Each structure stands twice: as structure tokens, then as C-alpha cells.
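A further point concerns the way the authors explain their paired sequence and structure data. Since the whole study asks how a given chain folds, the encoding of that fold should be made plain. A single example would do more here than another paragraph of explanation. An entry of this sort, consisting of the sequence and the corresponding C-alpha cells, reads as follows:

_____
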Amino acid sequence: MKAVQVEDFSKPVRVVELPIPKIAPNQVLVKQLYSPINPSDTLSAQGKYFATANVPTPFIAGFEASGEVVEVGKDLESRFKSGDKVYYVTMGSWAEYAAVNGESVHLLPEG
């Protein structure tokens, strides 16, 4: 999968090829459809945002996204199914796929 990675706070982000993440029982795998670019994201890529100031590099940029569930961990089978449209807030949203903890992912309302 393609992902936007922060490799060094003093350099521009890079698009890299990474494996699709494996999920844990308390996670869903989301195929990203939309992810915004916010001021917090640009500050994060420079090491100037509190949430990533102490995060070791490299890491995948982005904090929020929406997409479609493609795999469900066994602990979340009663809440989600493949094909559900969801949104979430967690690190690592600037990638084609993300493994997201159940407490951070929510169903999008219909309509």
C-alpha cells in the first residue's frame, strides 16, 4: 500500500510502499476513502505538534479519515462488518489502509 511517511522532522514527507497492516482482535482494517489535511497534520510532520513531538520516526502521517471496513477483528464482529462505511480519529490515516482500534472507529450515518 502507499502511505505518506514522516521519516525525519527536518525533511519533507515521502510517499512510500508499505505492507497492508495486520489487525488485532480489537481492530478493524479500513480501506481509506478520504483523509483531510489539517494544520495539526503539517505541524506533526515537522515535529511541532504535541501529539507527535515524542513519537519516533518513521511514522505514517494523518490523524483522521473515513473509509470502508475490509476486515473485522473477532472482538468487534458484533459492531462492524465488511463493507461498513466508517470514520475514525487516530494516527496513521494518510495511507491506503489502516488498522484501527475499535474505540476509535465509528459508523458513518446513512444518507
